[in-house]
Design a protein that fits this description.
heterodimer; A: about 325 residues; Rossmann fold; 5-stranded parallel sheet; 9 helices; about 30% helix; globular; B: 9-stranded mixed sheet; 15 strands; about 30% strand
Chain lengths: ~325, ~270
């Protein structure tokens, strides 16, 4: 496909209620820098149902233009409807770059879309820039379980596309909404949506593990020793208004559900505070949490590699330290 | 049910180390394994076969000749047949180019094995971690996709897929033919039995080489047919450790940390 403009698009994924997922707004931050370097507009593309809030937020967080596709068929994400809509818009407007949040849905839609266009897609980027020499986007992403970083470019195909991990970038500063809003009346026939959501089994109330959206995560690893060992961890997480995470070792041992897993085969997270309890710091785990603002490690083993990336580390038994930490924070904040 | 499982041989990335001086990956001595997510896809197919023994499971892998090792492993676990897609001109392919070759290979294999009702893939391979090849194959083949599958149940005309969603589990209905990618379920894949291991040792695998499909467009695969190019690779910068607290007792350490965190408004 030919690029008709120098515009950069950020896909704003929406929730069922039409509000934006955090990652879409986060991407407006690097998006601004890149759109300016590319010499085009920063455009937010919002697909969903009753998305007024998402459209407004995209403007507040710096989009020059918002393109909206709205309809009941977009209330819940489906590959078929979303890819059709995004393809239609891309063909019509011809952006030079498209960025998509690397959520489950973003990683489902991205490759289906890019292969329909016949262009390149770089998955799960953690760093973005414009190559000065060529003007191409330089997409940087981890590979080999976080052991290696690769910078990838898509020189001859447009739009150049990438998915970007949630939590890597911060939302831009809110400002005055100056965005021009374009509503596109594009609909997908029911027979063209070939998957159907039969049932939703939400985690029990209070058990929802929104690791990617959490500001504070308290995680347990092998040192936790068993399912009951997560009790003090949960207590600290509850006190701080955070959620419970886990390393692969704890999940593989059957102590906690996979939905809590942080790391290469789990979720990638970037909270304000990450407290790792009894986690040694294997590269696969670190790959999933190293972009946290503040990392705190609690481990008996003074040589555990988790201490190499921790801002604060306590050498000690988590069963002694974690409850004491909970009690002391409670006291200090009272 | 006629199921194809796409598998990949990958280096065990949990055993990769970094050369501390040259800052490069040390690949020597790192075992090549069946991509774990592909193992979950194969297990899902095996479970379909447990319920309906008439199910046929074929596996395909793209890679160098030694990648037949994973085909063998798959026969040991549950596969009936395996194919290797291997050609010099395929080297350097990115995900789009790989999916182009594989989608043609799938059509070629269907000439022999019959139309596949379903294609199962791992969510992603642990070396590249892109999660792109599955959906890209689905697009080339024009079939619906479901990603992040945990378990499937065959229905009259398709599958009910338990899918991992961000806030729980979804049950998705999809008709065959379709492509489903699998993530880690709550159960472990089965181990090969002795009988199946013996079968695997005797198994022979057909290779689809460079020219297996003359209608393939050479501008769509290999290094030159790949839209994305790796410009550079480097080892991630090592973060320096921060403050280490080690008081007489864990409680004292905890008190010290709590004060720092509260004073700095971190919590």
């Amino acid at each position: 496909m030919e690029a008709k403009t120098k515009d950069l698009w950020v896909f704003i994924e929406t929730n069922e209620d039409g509000s934006p997922k955090k990652v879409g707004l986060e991407l407006l931050n690097p998006g601004r820098m890149m759109a300016d370097k590319q010499g085009g507009k920063l455009v937010a593309v919002v697909i969903g149902d009753n998305v007024a809030e998402s459209v407004e937020q995209a403007g507040i967080y710096g989009a020059d233009q918002v393109i909206v596709v709205e309809g009941p068929e977009y209330k819940l994400y489906t590959t078929d409807a979303y890819v059709k809509a995004l393809y239609y818009l891309t063909e019509k407007y011809g952006p030079t770059t498209i960025m998509i949040g690397a959520t489950n849905n973003g990683r489902d839609m991205g490759p289906r879309f890019s292969s329909r266009v016949g262009t390149g897609l770089t998955a799960d980027c953690t760093s973005l820039d414009i190559d000065e020499e060529t003007g191409n986007v330089a997409w940087t992403r981890p590979a080999f379980g976080g052991n290696l970083m690769a910078t990838i470019m898509c020189p001859d195909h447009r739009p150049q596309c990438g998915t970007v991990r949630p939590g890597v970038f911060k939302k831009p500063e809110a400002g005055e909404n100056k965005a021009e809003v374009i509503k596109e009346d594009f609909h997908v026939a029911p027979e063209d949506i070939r998957t159907v959501l039969l049932e939703v089994i939400k985690e029990a109330a209070g058990e929802i593990v929104d690791l990617e959206g959490a500001d504070i995560i308290v995680s347990g690893g092998r040192g936790v020793g068993g399912p009951e060992g997560f009790a003090p961890i949960k207590e600290l997480a509850d006190l701080l208004g955070g959620v419970v995470g886990a390393s692969r070792a704890a999940v593989d041992s059957g102590w906690i559900a996979h939905s809590h897993q942080v790391g290469q085969t789990g979720k990638t997270v970037g909270p304000k505070v990450y407290i790792a309890c009894g986690i040694s710091g294997a590269i696969q785990h670190v790959a999933g949490m190293s972009s946290s603002d503040c990392i705190i490690a609690i481990n008996k083993d003074e040589d555990a590699s988790i201490f190499n990336i921790a801002d604060y580390g306590i050498v000690g038994d988590l069963f002694e330290v974690v409850p004491a930490l909970t009690a002391e924070i409670k006291k200090l904040k009272a | 049910m006629n199921i194809l499982v796409c598998v990949k041989q990958v280096p065990d990335t949990t055993q990769i180390k970094i050369d501390p001086v040259k800052h490069t990956l040390i690949r020597e001595g790192v075992p090549a394994i069946l991509n774990p997510f592909d193992g979950y896809a194969l297990e899902a197919a095996a479970r379909v076969k447990d319920k309906d023994p008439s199910t046929k499971i074929t596996v395909v892998t793209m890679g160098p000749p030694q990648a037949t090792a994973v085909l063998k492993e798959c026969v040991g676990i549950a596969a009936d047949k395996g194919y290797l897609v291997s050609g010099r001109t395929f080297g350097g392919s990115d995900t789009l180019a790989t999916s182009y070759i594989l989608s043609h290979a799938i059509k070629a294999i269907e000439e022999k094995e019959g139309k596949f009702d379903a294609i199962f893939c791992g969510k992603q391979a642990i070396d590249g971690d892109t999660a792109q090849v599955g959906p890209e194959i689905a697009e080339w083949l024009g079939v619906p996709q479901v990603t992040y599958g945990l378990e499937v149940e065959a229905t009259e005309d398709g599958f009910k897929v338990r899918k991992e969603a961000e806030d729980g589990v979804q049950i998705i209905g999809v008709k065959t033919p379709c492509l489903i990618t699998f993530t880690k379920p709550s159960f472990d894949p089965r181990y090969p039995t002795i009988k199946r291991k013996l079968m695997a040792n005797k198994a022979k695998f057909e290779t689809l080489g460079d020219d297996f499909d003359p209608t393939m467009d050479a501008s769509h695969y290999g290094l030159n047919g790949s839209p994305t190019h790796v410009k550079k690779s480097f080892t991630p910068p090592v973060k320096q450790g921060g403050m280490k607290i080690k008081e007489e007792t864990g409680e004292e350490s905890a008190k010290k940390l709590a004060k720092i965190l509260v004073d700095a408004n971190i919590v």
